[in-house]
Amino acid sequence: MSEIVLPTEDEFNLRALFGVEPYGTLKQQLILFALEILRTSLLDHVHPFETLQACTAIQWEDENLQSPSPVHEALTALERDPQTRPLLDLLHEEAVRQRLRIEWLHEATLGRFERTVPYLHQEDRLIQDWQHACAQWKESSFNPYETAAQEAERVAQDQGLAESTRRLFVLSFLAACRKLFVHLCGARETWVGSWSLEGFPLDPALAGLLGVDGTEDASKENRLVLRFGLVDHVYYVQPPLEKLTLFAESIRHTDLVSVIQRKLCPFTTDAGDARNADLWAKVFYSVYQLHRLREMKGASPPAPDPDFLAQTGLTHEQFDEYGFVPLDPETVGSFARLINALPDLRAFLFNPRTEASLIRHRLFKVILDPMLRQVVHATMLSLCRQWNPCVKTAGGEFKPMLQYVQERANEEVGMAQPSDAAAIQTETARRIIVREELLRILEANTAQWQQAMTTDGYVVDPARDFFMTILDKAINETDGIRWESCRNSQPIASAIIE
Amino acid sequence: MDKLEINWSTANVVAPREGCVLMVCSCQHQRDWETVFCEFAYRKDGGVVLVNCRAKSFLIEASVPCDYAVRLGNITVPHQVPIEFYQLPVPAWFHRREKIARALARRLANQIRLIGVADIFSALAGVQET
C-alpha cells in the first residue's frame, strides 16, 4: 500500500515564515491562530493586538490549566523547548518564586492604580470655580450648582454612607454633574495635555430629551459623548433657561450620573453596597491619592531592587529581559509581610498549582505574548505582500499597496541610512507606520466586503478584490498544513488520486 | 524600565526595542504630571509627535480592579515642554479595552473572593477589621 499522494494546496506558503528563527517551529504552529485573530479583528473593526489581548487574557485566566487552547498548548511547548531551559531554571529558584508572588500581588493591587489618568484631578478646585460662576448668575431662576449639590446630598443620604465614603461620593457626584453641565450648557474646557472621548449609552427617553436619538453620527446615536482628561480651566457662560431645565432634568436620571461618576472615580461603587463603598473610599484616600501625590512630585520610576539582583546574580539587562517589575525595597517588604499576615492569601500563593501558574505566566509575558504579536504582524505582512492590490492615493494616482505604505513611512520618519546611528530605531518606527497603514486599508476593504455580504448574503470574488478572500483561503490552506502534519506522522495507506 | 537619554540634534526618531513601548512623562506648569505611553516618537515641525498614544485607566468591577488602555491617537508635544522617555516591556493592559477589563474583573471575582482581596486592600489602607 502506498502513502497518500493527495496534492496539497500551498499558494501562500506561510510555512516558509519563521523557518530558522529561535522558536521557529512554535511560531509556525501559531500561524493559524494568528490568521483567525486577523479575521476576527477585521470583522469587528478592532486592532488585531487588542483582539489578541482579549483572546489570550481570557484563555490565560481560565482556571483549568488543562483546558486545550492555543495559549496553553504553546506554553507547554515552550516549557519543553531546550531554548527555554535557562529561564525555567531561574524561575524555579526560591528567591525568584518569592519575587513572582510579590509581583503578582502588586499587579493585582497597587499596580492597577499606578500611572493612571486621574480624572478627579483638581476636581475640588473645578467644582469651587463652578460654584462661584453659578453664584454670579443672579438672574437665573435657579442655581445649577445648588441643584446638583442638593441632589448629591439626597442620594448620599439614601445610601447611609460613612463620613469619608460620603465625602468621596459627593465629590464624584458633583464632578459628574459638572461634566454634564459643561456639555449641555456650552461651557468650554481647556486641557493639560491629551484627552479622550467616552460614550455613555442612554435610554430612549433620555436620548430624546438630550436630542441624540436619530442623529446621523452612528457613534453618537443614543449615546452621550463627553471628554475626559486633566482639565486645566473652564470658561463658563450663563446658559438660557431651557438649557438649565435640561440640566436639572438630566441629573435626576441617577443611572446616567452614576455611570459618569464611576468613570471619574472608579472607587465609587454601586448603590446599596455600603461595606465595599466604605473600603474603597479608604483605599482612595489612604493609598491611591498618596501614590498620585508621589507621582506628581516627579518621583522617577524605581530602579531594579539591588537585593534581588544580588540574590539572583542577574544584571540590569537580564532583570528587564525576564520581565521583572522594578519595585522599591519598601514595597517589596510590605507585600512580603502582607503575604505572611493573611492566611488565605499565603495558602493561595504557596499552592503548587499557583506556583506553576506563576511560572507559566512569566513565560507568557516574556516569550509567548511578544511572539504572538510578532506572528500576527508577520502573517499579515506576508499576505499583504502577496495580495498587494493597487490603491488610490490622496493625489488620485494608483500605486501598489506596499509601495504606497512604504512611501507614507518615508514621509513621516525618513529613510534609515546604513551609517545612521539611529537606523534601528528608524526601522522600528517605519515598521509600525507600515503596519498601521496596512490595517487602515484592510479595515476599509473589509467594510466594503461586509457591505457586499449584506446585499447578497455571499461574495463571489474571482478578481480577489477583497482581502477577506485571501484571508479565508490562507486559513483553509494553513488548516490543511496542520492536517498534513498529522497525516505524515501516521502514514495511512489507501488511494492514489490521479 | 530604562530611562532613555535623547539628543534631538542627532536623532530624529525615538523608538523602543522590539517588544517594548515608551513611557513619556511630561511636566506641565511644574506642578502637574501626566504620563502617556506610545509606540515611538519623532521630531516634526518644532515639536515631538508621540505615535499611537495610550493613557492608563482602571475600573473596579465586582470589587476587583483592572487596568485598561484609553487610546489617544497621536499627540504633538511642543519642544519647549520638557518630557522624559522611558522604555519598558509592553504592559499587559496596553492593548486591553475597557470591555475586556470589565470581563476579566468579573472572571477573577470568584478567585479573588477565595483569597480575600478585600483583606488585602483593607491591610493596604490600614483599615482595622472589627
Overview of the molecule:
The complex is a heterodimer of chains A (498) and B (130). The longest helix of chain A has 36 residues, at 352-387. The radius of gyration of chain A is 28 Å and the shape is globular. Helices cover 63% and strands 7% of the residues of chain A. In chain A, β3 (390-392) and β4 (398-400) form a beta hairpin. Chain A has a two-stranded antiparallel ribbon. Chain A has a two-stranded antiparallel ribbon with strand order 3-4. Chain A has 22 helices and 4 strands. Mean pLDDT of chain A is 84; it is low at 1-8 and 483-498. Chain A is mostly helical. With 130 residues, chain B is an alpha+beta fold. Helices cover 21% and strands 48% of the residues of chain B. Chain B is built from 2 helices and 8 strands. In chain B, the strands form 2 sheets. In chain B, strands 1-8-3-4 form a 4-stranded antiparallel sheet, with no helix packed on it. A 4-stranded antiparallel sheet of chain B has the order 2-5-6-7. The chains are: A mainly alpha (498), B alpha+beta (130). The interface between A and B is large, with 77 and 75 residues.
Summarize the structure.
The complex is a heterodimer of chains A (498) and B (130). Chain A has 498 residues and is mainly α.
List the helices and strands and how they pair.
The complex is a heterodimer of chains A (498) and B (130).
Chain A: H1 24-29, H2 31-44, H3 48-60, H4 70-80, H5 85-91, H6 94-108, H7 110-113, H8 123-135, H9 144-159, H10 163-185, E1 188-201, H11 204-210, E2 223-235, H12 241-251, H13 254-264, H14 274-296, H15 306-312, H16 316-321, H17 329-341, H18 343-349, H19 352-387, E3 390-392, E4 398-400, H20 401-413, H21 423-456, H22 467-489
Antiparallel strand pairs in A: 1-2, 3-4
Helix pairs in contact in A: 2-3, 2-19, 2-22, 3-19, 4-19, 6-17, 6-19, 8-10, 9-10, 9-12, 10-12, 10-13, 10-14, 20-21
Chain B: E1 2-4, E2 13-14, E3 20-28, E4 32-38, E5 40-44, E6 47-61, E7 64-78, E8 83-89, H1 98-115, H2 117-125
